[in-house]
Amino acid sequence: MKEPARKEAEREVSMVHALGEVVRRELREFVVTAGMAALTTLLERERTEACGPRYAHQPERRAHRAGHAPGELVLGGRRVTVRRPRARTLDGHEVTLPSWRWFGAQDPLHERALTQMLVGVSTRRYARSLEPVPEGVKTRGISKSAVSRRFVAATEAQMGQWLGRDLSPLELCVLMLDGVHVEEHVLLVALGIDVDGKKHVLGIREGATENASACTALLADLRERGMHTDRTMLVVLDGSKALAKAVREVFGPRALIQRCQAHKTRNVLDQLPEDVRPSVRETLRQAYSCRDAVRAKKLLINLARRLRDQHPGAAASLDEGLDETLTVMRLGLPRNLERVLSTTNAVENLIGSVRRLGQRVKRWRDGRMILRWTVTAVADAATRFRRILGAREGMTKLVLALRAQAATSNAIESRTKVA
Prior knowledge:
Strand order of the largest sheet: 6-5-4-7-8
Structural class: alpha/beta
Shape: elongated
Oligomer: single chain
Mean pLDDT: 83
Strand content: 15-25%
Number of domains: 2
Number of helices: 14
């Protein structure tokens, strides 16, 4: 294309874009203006129904017009000032028009502020993220402090709802527990998996450390909210002995504990020099990927024996809870489901959402603020939950295996009582 023709084409494209922007702006202003005019017409019609036609003589009149007053409604994530028609009863009481009551009660500002924070808009940039309104429309509620107050109010309400939900309708067969560190605080997250393979965030508990007391308090809260602890359940934990102790205190022999294989691998490798780690990692991978629990245990015992003299710390870490890293392998589940239930990766992925959202916080004021943000991130992540891998063909086998384990435990308990 020759240079004059190319420049002419660029000018035409630029003019089309400019025209499109004008049309878009004018259309937006038209829609907003027309909508506000329609609302004014509707309110005026309702005032006429309450007061009767203007200047008409009505002996049975129960209210009279009282001019207009400035009022506020929500529009596009902000409050806008609207002229509100007023009416008063004959004895001086204000008449609330039905449409004003309805529109005034629809307050999506908290939800809008929460959504904006979740997608990464800061409180300082909130106003820039909104669509502009026509000139002459008075607005408020878009300052940094106003948006921050709405976000706090929205997350407080969400936290109260999430941490107080009734859990009794859930038919859970798996419970996963893991913790996330935020500054000096630890937040324990409980994730449940029901008999259909669907995930449910059950609870969150804030504490100073990941100790047995905090975990016991979390489990006790879940029990009070309806989680069934009187039936056998697979409980998947990280490498913490404190969590295992708390689970046994609450569930007793009904807890079938699976230690996270990923945590165990990291704990062992962290205590080894760099040149030794590859061979140890490969042995652990072979043990945890084979389908025979007896052979896997033999591989792990031989590895611990090999490490004991040169690296006693790593050997002790491997020995601790070794049998419990193979619990799921003994149940004979399909490979996909076994891999999912042998680690706390499902909770780790959830915690990743907490970390990503928390990166935008410059200063954590207190533990309650941390808890609010954590609940917000978890609630948002829960909207994207899918069934766990291998659930379709494996959950029935898991339920049957748990029932068989329960029958065995009951038989042992009965013989113990008789003896």
